[in-house]
């Protein structure tokens, strides 16, 4: 049985519990360490000294693999060390405290590494990678998929913020905007950075009215936030476009809309909000583009039709 994974370079595999590069060939090993199988393959004979060496070897390999971020392989070597330690025991083994702590540490580091891989480093919101994975998961499959709303949110005149107040303050603005966007999100919803100053609010299983209400509340929070406390004269607003996909079932005969199509629809509605004067949330109802909240009294700019989507 080969225990060492192929990704570990610089050492031959461990076969039947023997590290050949550590102990040498069978002819070089002590007589009481190996005997020959009928087919000529070496078999290790249990010995306390050799077992201790193998246990230490597995632990060393596990430490090296964990330093490389190869958590699964590291955990397998720790398990192998534990199996060797209790190979001849007929009683239920008690995990040594040191090994227990080591496994717990590896699990924690693996969880932290996984979380970091799906988070945006600046805003701590989810990143584009996580967004793509979740949208594909929510919209994929041949079975029934629930309703899904997306709000594509963009900061208004953000380039002017960077040009006037500097990029460091611009970064602080992005961080605060994310905090305000995430405040009050319903269970299951999340915020992800789409790119630059654009963010996506994802509302799984949410009706369009609720998605509009939540997004408009976030827009209002951002507008009313005391930005002048960060820098005198600073003002920040956002615009958003909301696309909603009704539940798709085999009975409807309509396949689920792809994530790309959903984002294109939201982007088209975001454009309508921008063209209507910014600082607004645009959505489609009955074939018409409408604005939510205080902006509803404005005359919404007709949204250009995107071929194949409406």
Describe the protein's architecture and organization.
The protein is α+β, with helices and mostly antiparallel strands and 310 residues long. The chain folds into two domains: 14-117, no CATH class; 128-297, Alpha-Beta Plaits (2-Layer Sandwich). Helices cover 42% and strands 15% of the residues. It is built from nine helices and ten strands. Strand 1 (14-15) and strand 2 form a beta hairpin. The chain is elongated, with a radius of gyration of 29 Å. 29% of the residues are buried.
Please render the helix and strand layout as text.
Elements: E1 14-15, E2 18-19, H1 20-23, E3 34-36, E4 42-44, H2 48-67, H3 71-85, H4 97-117, H5 128-139, E5 148-155, H6 158-165, H7 167-182, E6 190-195, E7 198-204, H8 208-224, E8 238-245, H9 259-275, E9 281-285, E10 288-291
Parallel strand pairs: 8-9
Antiparallel strand pairs: 1-2, 3-4, 5-7, 5-8, 6-7, 9-10
Helix pairs in contact: 2-3, 3-4, 6-7, 7-8
Radius of gyration: 29 Å
CATH class of the largest domain: Alpha Beta
Instruction: Provide mean pLDDT, rounded.
Output: 79
Strand content: 15-25%
Which architecture of the largest domain per CATH? 2-Layer Sandwich
Query: Helical element count?
Result: 9
Q: Estimate the helix proportion, in percent.
A: 40-55%
Number of strands: 10
String of helices and strands: EEHEEHHHHEHHEEHEHEE
* Major sheet description: 6 strands, mixed
Strand order of the biggest β-sheet: 6-7-5-8-9-10
Tell me the name of the CATH homologous superfamily of the largest domain: Reverse transcriptase/Diguanylate cyclase domain
Question: Under CATH, the topology of the largest domain is which?
Answer: Alpha-Beta Plaits
Terminal-residue CA separation: 58 Å
Structural class: alpha+beta
Shape summary:
elongated
Unreliable spans are 1-47
Structural domains: how many: 2
């Amino acid at each position: 049985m080969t225990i060492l994974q192929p990704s570990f370079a610089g050492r031959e595999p461990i076969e039947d519990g023997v590290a050949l590069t550590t102990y040498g060939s069978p002819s070089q090993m002590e007589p009481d360490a190996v005997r020959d199988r009928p087919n000529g393959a070496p078999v290790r004979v249990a010995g306390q000294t050799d077992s201790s060496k193998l246990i230490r070897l597995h632990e060393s390999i596990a430490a090296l693999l964990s330093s490389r971020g190869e958590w699964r392989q590291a955990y397998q070597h720790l398990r192998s060390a534990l199996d060797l330690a209790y190979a001849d025991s007929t009683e239920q083994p008690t995990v040594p405290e040191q090994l227990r702590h080591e496994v717990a540490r590896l699990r924690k580091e693996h969880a932290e590494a996984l979380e970091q891989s799906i988070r945006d480093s600046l805003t701590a919101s989810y990143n584009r990678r996580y967004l793509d994975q979740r949208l594909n998961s929510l919209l994929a499959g041949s079975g029934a998929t629930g309703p899904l709303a997306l709000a594509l949110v963009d900061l208004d005149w953000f380039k002017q913020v960077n040009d006037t107040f500097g990029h460091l303050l611009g970064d602080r603005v992005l961080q605060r905007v994310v905090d305000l966007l995430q405040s009050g999100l319903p269970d299951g919803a999340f915020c992800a950075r789409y790119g630059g100053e654009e963010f996506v609010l994802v509302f799984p299983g949410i009706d369009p009215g609720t998605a509009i209400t939540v997004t408009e509340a976030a827009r209002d929070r951002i507008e009313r936030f005391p930005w002048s406390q960060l820098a005198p004269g600073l003002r920040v607003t956002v615009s958003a476009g909301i696309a909603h996909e009704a539940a798709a079932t085999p009975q409807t005969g309509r396949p689920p809309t792809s994530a790309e199509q959903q984002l294109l629809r939201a982007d088209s509605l975001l454009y309508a909000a921008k063209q209507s004067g910014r600082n607004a949330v645009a959505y489609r109802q009955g074939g018409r583009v409408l604005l939510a909240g205080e902006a509803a009294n404005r005359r919404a700019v007709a949204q250009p039709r995107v071929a194949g989507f409406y």
